């Protein structure tokens, strides 16, 4: 029975039965209400959720009828979350638009019939529609809107119930208790309540003066209704979907308008509101007031776009998963800057860094190298703490633990590499690559310049931080660093040292360490702030970043499937030495051998026996390729895939018939990283080197040489297998781009027309070996 004083009707005709969540449900239990979530990541714990659908979300662009595609995708997400064991409620608009569509159709039909009776002709072009009163439209549209929701939710075996309310239902204590009781009972029976203001009888809205306390708020639109309902029902989360991305610091579309990722109650003075959306009676100011009221009552709030075709299908689930979607309202303001503020700080300081004299940038890098050795004990103490925590947690593999570990020898090697970079930096930014005399007194130069803001994401490799920092300083780039939490203590002290070195010339903020809870996917969405992403870590990390990056180039490789091919003319000593080093020196490295290709004629020879004996001695697990397995009576375990990066003391052995077969195999199964041939036949080797399309191709040398330090680059930000920009180990040169500088004297293109007085010369000019800043420093 429906409690008295409450407008309610259940839309499900079947008997109401309680459907508990599945036994496998991992949803958290309902938390004690009273305090909202402090961070987005905590939204995953939300159990009771109110989804508010604004008029712009539910209705079509012509405001007559519903946006069925958007509505269907929203229903699917709500049903999915409901079936996970969460308690979902919907506050919806749309009754007026749905009723307007029905009434217009009825009026057109009625007028058409009357005209046909009076004139015998159907003259629809002369018909005019009367202004439709909103309450009448709501009365005509409520039943149809609810029937549509019922039909959609039925596809997911989810039952719904309709509840219509007015302001009086919240101000009358008995009615409010009745409403609360009904909603709790529906949620207990696993039913999704669909709530709307009863627009057919709703009284005029009350003044805004009622947004003062936790216990008072007028229901004048669905924003205030959703806020009141969320607090009344002690909801964990209110998701308010509208036709804007979230809350901006000024009207969207105006110059320099910035979308706020997180909004804090004390920031209200910094917001300039614009006009309302095309439909509905609320605007962004009303949404913010309602959101802050709900936040004060203990409910977390996110305002997001529910109309964008690319995100509507997952906007609600993304919010619940804690992803950076829309604007998150939080009462807890972090002590440090947001990642957006860090990026802006880095870009501003990076421009100053790029304008420094090369000697000054070199001095900063040398200072960082000195700090690595002078503060060695502090660094190793922080690293020891990270290692102890990692071992206790037991989540890192032995190879990952090895990457995490630092030693005095590693720090000394890092310092040497940094000093090499310092020397290279003297001839980097501002170097002239090309000079052309376009015409008399019109000269063109192509010069090297920084890329801008780099985002480097790395796992379990704290030694990466000073290397990448030095390369960024040398190339004049701003740098945003996101390290793995397993190296948090080591990264923290290494970043402090980098900023201490940068302070020599007042550019401390050029390198920022992201220590907030931002997920990698969220960082990849900062396409307006970051110019290049460089992932350093597992192949899975690189693939995830390549998928998540939207409009930001990604420099790197997803896998390091490196091959060593043993030719029929290979030297026994060289073969054993190169194969051992390529596989066993550092199996976790991306340049370690993963597949050993052997010429068919080497099988059942002393050389083959020595290779197998060496691998067994080194405790390398062997996986047989299909052809190799066919030659053996009792073979090792057959490989599951020839495209496997083991990252451990494991490798695949496969047999090929010829040099061309080896090249074809590598092209088919390799990752274009590093591939090696071992042979004494120079013609065979040159054919391999010329024909193979990999970033690094070696003759009679270990694959482990594919490294920026070993190439003399000082260090590398990673190895790229891309075919544009930089390829192979990416050092200083790979972090530079170019710009064109044209110096004229009042030249105009019209001067070079057929009737003009000037002609193009396009003469190549000699290029200076010093960069402009060096030429003018005296």
UniProtKB/TrEMBL annotation:
Gene Ontology CC? mitochondrial matrix
Gene3D superfamilies per the UniProt record, alphabetical: Acetylglutamate kinase-like (3.40.1160.10), Aldehyde Dehydrogenase, Chain A, domain 1 (3.40.605.10), Aldehyde Dehydrogenase, Chain A, domain 2 (3.40.309.10)
Instruction: Give GO terms for biological process.
Output: L-proline biosynthetic process
User: What would be an example GO MF term here?
Assistant: glutamate-5-semialdehyde dehydrogenase activity
Main location (coarse class): mitochondrion
Q: Where in the cell is it found?
A: Mitochondrion matrix
Q: Taking every annotated instance into account, which residue ranges of this chain make up the domain Aldehyde dehydrogenase?
A: 338-605
Against PANTHER family, the record matches this protein to: DELTA-1-PYRROLINE-5-CARBOXYLATE SYNTHASE (PTHR11063:SF8), GLUTAMATE SEMIALDEHYDE DEHYDROGENASE (PTHR11063)
Q: What is this protein called?
A: Delta-1-pyrroline-5-carboxylate synthase
Species this protein is from: Denticeps clupeoides (denticle herring)
- Gene behind the chain: ALDH18A1
């Amino acid at each position: 029975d429906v409690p008295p004083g409450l407008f309610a009707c259940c839309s499900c005709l079947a008997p109401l039965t309680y459907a508990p969540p599945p036994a496998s449900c991992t949803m958290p239990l309902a938390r004690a209400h009273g305090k909202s979530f402090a961070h987005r990541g905590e939204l995953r714990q939300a159990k009771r959720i109110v989804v508010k659908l604004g008029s712009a979300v539910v209705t079509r662009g012509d405001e007559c009828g519903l946006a069925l595609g958007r509505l269907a995708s929203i229903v699917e997400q709500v049903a999915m979350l409901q079936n996970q064991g969460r308690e979902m409620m919907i506050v919806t608009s749309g009754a007026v638009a749905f009723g307007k569509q029905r009434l217009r159709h009825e009026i057109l039909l009625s007028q058409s019939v009357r005209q046909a009776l009076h004139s015998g002709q159907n003259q629809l072009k002369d018909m005019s529609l009367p202004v439709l009163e909103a309450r009448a439209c709501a009365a005509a549209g409520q039943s149809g809107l609810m029937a549509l929701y019922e039909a959609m939710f039925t596809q997911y075996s989810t039952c719904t119930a309709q509840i219509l309310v007015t302001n009086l239902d919240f101000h009358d204590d008995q009615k409010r208790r009745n409403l609360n009781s009904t909603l709790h009972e529906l949620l207990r029976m696993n039913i999704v309540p669909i709530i709307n203001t009863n627009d057919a009888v709703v009284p005029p809205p009350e003044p805004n003066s009622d947004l003062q306390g936790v216990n008072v708020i007028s229901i004048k639109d669905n924003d205030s209704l959703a806020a009141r309902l969320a607090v009344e029902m002690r909801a964990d989360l209110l998701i308010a979907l509208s036709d804007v991305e979230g809350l901006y610091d000024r009207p969207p579309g105006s110059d320099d308008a910035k979308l706020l990722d997180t909004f804090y109650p004390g920031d209200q003075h910094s917001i300039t509101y614009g006009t309302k959306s095309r439909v509905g009676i609320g605007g962004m100011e009303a949404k913010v007031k309602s959101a802050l009221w709900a936040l004060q009552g203990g409910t977390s709030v996110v305002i997001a776009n529910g109309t964008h075709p690319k995100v509507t299908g997952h906007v609600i689930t993304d919010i619940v998963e804690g992803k950076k979607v829309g604007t998150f309202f939080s009462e807890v303001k972090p002590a440090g800057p947001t990642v957006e503020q860090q990026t802006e700080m880095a870009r501003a300081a990076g421009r100053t860094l790029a304008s420094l004299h090369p000697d000054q940038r070199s001095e900063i890098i040398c200072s960082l190298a000195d700090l690595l050795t002078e503060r060695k004990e502090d660094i190793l103490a922080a690293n020891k703490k990270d290692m102890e925590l990692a071992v206790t947690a037991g989540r890192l593999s032995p190879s990952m633990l090895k990457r995490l570990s630092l030693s005095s020898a590693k720090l000394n090697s890092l310092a040497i590499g940094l000093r090499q970079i310092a020397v290279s930096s003297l001839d980097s930014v501002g170097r002239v690559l090309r000079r052309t005399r376009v015409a008399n007194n019109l000269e063109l130069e192509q010069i090297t310049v920084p890329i801008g803001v780099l985002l480097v994401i790395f796992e379990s490799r704290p030694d990466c931080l000073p290397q990448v920092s030095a390369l960024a300083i040398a190339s004049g780039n701003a740098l945003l660093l996101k390290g793995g939490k397993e190296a948090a203590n080591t990264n923290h002290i290494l970043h402090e040292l980098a900023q201490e070195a940068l302070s020599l010339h007042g550019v401390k903020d050029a390198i920022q360490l992201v220590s907030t809870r931002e997920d990698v996917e969220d960082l990849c969405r900062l396409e307006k702030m970051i110019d290049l992403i460089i992932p350093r870590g597992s192949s899975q990390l690189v693939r995830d970043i390549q998928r998540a990056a939207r409009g930001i180039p990604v420099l790197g490789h997803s896998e390091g499937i490196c091959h060593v091919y043993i030719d029929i003319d290979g030297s026994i000593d060289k073969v054993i030495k190169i194969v051992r080093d390529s596989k066993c020196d550092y199996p976790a490295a991306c340049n370690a051998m993963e597949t050993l290709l052997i010429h068919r004629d080497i099988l059942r020879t002393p050389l083959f026996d020595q290779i197998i004996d060496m691998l067994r001695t080194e405790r390398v697990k062997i996986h047989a390729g299909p052809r190799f397995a066919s030659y053996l009576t009792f073979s090792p375990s057959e490989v599951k895939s020839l495209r496997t990066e083991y990252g451990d003391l494991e490798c695949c052995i496969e047999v090929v018939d010829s040099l061309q077969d080896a090249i074809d195999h590598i092209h088919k199964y390799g990752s274009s990283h590093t591939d090696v041939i071992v042979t004494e036949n120079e013609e065979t080797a040159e054919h391999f080197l010329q024909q193979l399309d990999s970033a690094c191709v070696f003759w009679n040398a270990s694959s482990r040489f594919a490294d920026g330090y070993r190439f003399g680059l000082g260090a590398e930000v990673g190895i790229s297998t891309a075919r544009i920009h930089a390829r192979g180990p990416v050092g200083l040169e790979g972090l530079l781009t170019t710009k064109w500088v044209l110096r004229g004297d009042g030249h105009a293109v019209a001067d070079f027309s057929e009737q003009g007085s000037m002609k193009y010369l396009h003469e190549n000019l000699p290029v200076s070996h010093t960069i402009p800043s060096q030429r003018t420093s005296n």
